[in-house]
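User: My instructor asked us to take a sequence, write out its structure as tokens, and then describe one feature of it. I'm not sure where to start. Here is the sequence I was given:
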Amino acid sequence: DLSKWSTDSLNNIDSIFRQCYKFNSPVNHFKVDKVTNFSGAFSDCSAFNQDLGLWDTSAGIKFSGMFFDAPLFNQDIGSWNVSKGTIFDGMFRNAVDFNQDLSFWCVSGAVNAPNFATGSGMSAINLPVWGKCPVRFATVEIDPVTELQVGRDYNLTYSSEPIFDPISVKWNSS
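Assistant: Let's start with the prediction itself. The structure tokens for your sequence are:
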């Protein structure tokens, strides 16, 4: 029962579930905010396909082979903060089902990632842009024109395509 595992002080999960062929247990509750090495964590986990979208990967540097030969994994991890990452080689190699949008990942510290998605189901449009940190933005139109007062809070409702989930919204009233 993984719910009883203490994960507060994890800093390296290199190959933690490697070759766990039948492993498909929920691990979204794992506290991974201090982990710098995610390499091979789920490599050769042929049954694994669990949600990891809530993982705080912001300290991560090494992601090589994380889902190597994990053919069923296809969860949305597009919101992961991998901006400190420098090593992504083979991260999704042979992850046959994986085809999630990672095009907004900030990978400015990685010039390239050999075999990042070789043999995966990932389409080119979903790949990160190596050496870049894409900027997400949205334009807000107020209709009808409304007088806004400084110092007041306003709730904004928005829609966009594709779905946009901002980390923060800043309002410039100048």
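For the description part of your assignment, you could build on this observation: Confidence is low (pLDDT under 50) at residues 160-168. Try explaining in your own words what that tells you about the chain.
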